[in-house]
Amino acid sequence: MPVPATVHLYDLLDEPLRQWLEQAGRRHRFPAGHTILEEGEKGHNMYFLLAGECEVDIQGEVVNRIRSGELFGELGGLGEGRRTSTVRSSGPVEVLEISRQSILHVMEQSPAAASALLKSLATTARAISGREADVRREHRALRDVERELLPDTAVMVDSRRFSMEYRWQPLTWASGDYCDVIRLGAERYLLCIGDVVGHGAQTSVSMATLRSGLRTLLSVDTRPAGLLSRLDRHLLRNGPRNMPVTLVIALIEGSRDATVACFSTAGCHGPLLYRDGAVASFGKTHGPLLGYGFGEDYDYGETCIPLRTADRLMLFTDGLSEARKGPARDDMLTVPGLARLLGKVCANCKEGALEHLFLAIDGFRLGYDAGDDATAMLVTVH
After folding, report:
1. Is 177 found in the same domain as 284?
2. Which of 54, 185, 214, 333 fits a 20 to 30 Å CA distance from 230?
3. What domain range includes position 41?
4. What tens-digit pLDDT sequence spans the chain (382 residues)?
5. Are residues 65 and 85 located together in one domain of the fold?
């Protein structure tokens, strides 16, 4: 949304007040391309543009132009807040820098100038509010797209051997956590959970690239280790640069004779297994993160676990195990701490275990801010 032009406040001043202001302020001459105000910096003063023209940009996009006689920087200057945009000279310019105290004096001496300045501030505030509303709408749209990519628990609705629940808790409007469940056949499912290193919209791009690549590669290979090697090459060629991914893939299969989970990990912790009141941790990673090209000739290997009735297998991102209750080294939950919480929850909850686990993690944090997305999948064997 364009920033509206500021009124020509300078033209409303009478000659004595204009002379007083010029004596109280400081004149500057700047060449073309000079940055007068920087977006995000602390605002102290404001400026009249006496000659020339300036452009206003927000996050690198030019949204308005300032012309001779206009006041700019008034929102940050009067409020002593952060600058909401960058102002740069389009050609040679002359500006008058004035302090907050000086402009307040002008407003006291000239009701017309005070009225014009207040209207200008209101218009600028409305423009900023409109831009923020646009950004919020974009954020909601991205969140809706990410929700569409979350797994469909209905794929296990006909299973007699397994049931699954998951919980996805993004830190911000864009999440780099990925989870998926894919039905490969009767009582045969592929579970995936991963974490794109970083935050923001680019992590969502990597997550979507990972998801589409995995589903494409299933026509070639369904074994976890083979999929990791192929996904490493896929992300290197098609994903954003320097945004590696941690991923665990588990293949669970159930038959009359045996039920087994085989998994492989890339740069992350393996699953936790709840059985008979105790939790086993499979922590050693099988290989490096995806997206660097290390896996092209790398055998990630697999670990296979026989499963029994009432077992619960949890895949998770490090947003759970690295939850904190403070900044000190010992304030992190850690994987053993997460395993203890999982054991307590599973012992007391037949349904909704992940909801109670996330509540327990929130209780551990004692109000300390979450530092990462947190996602988990829990499969129960029947």
Report:
1. yes
2. 185
3. 9-138
4. 333 334 456 666 677 777 787 788 889 999 999 999 988 888 778 888 888 999 999 888 888 888 887 888 877 666 666 888 899 999 999 998 988 788 777 777 776 666 666 666 666 666 656 666 666 676 676 667 677 777 777 788 889 999 999 999 888 776 788 899 999 999 999 999 999 887 666 677 778 888 888 888 887 778 999 999 999 988 888 887 888 999 999 999 998 889 999 999 999 999 999 999 999 999 877 889 998 887 667 789 999 999 999 999 999 999 999 999 998 889 999 999 999 999 999 999 988 999 999 999 999 998 888 888 899 999 999 9
5. yes
Last residue of a domain, one of 138, 163, 195: 138
> Strands 303-306 and 259-266, how do they pair?
antiparallel
Own/partner pairs, 334-339, CB within 8 angstroms, 24+ separation? 335/269, 335/272, 335/281, 335/283, 336/281, 337/364, 338/272, 339/272, 339/279, 339/281
pTM above 0.90, yes or no: no
DSSP output for 73-93: SHHHHHHT-B-SSEEEESSSE
Residues 6+ positions from 189 with CB-CB distance below 8 Å:
155, 156, 159, 162, 164, 181, 182, 183, 251, 252, 253
- Domain membership of residue 156 (yes or no) is yes
Question: Has residue 3 been placed in a domain?
Answer: no
The region, left, alpha or beta by phi > 0 then psi within -120 to 50, assigned to residue 24 is alpha
2 in any annotated domain: no
Within the chain, where are the H helices? 15-24, 74-79, 100-109, 111-148, 201-217, 224-238, 318-321, 334-348, 353-365
Q: How many domains is the chain built from?
A: 2
SS3 label, residue 140:
helix
290 shares a domain with 265: yes
- 101 and 168 in a common domain: no
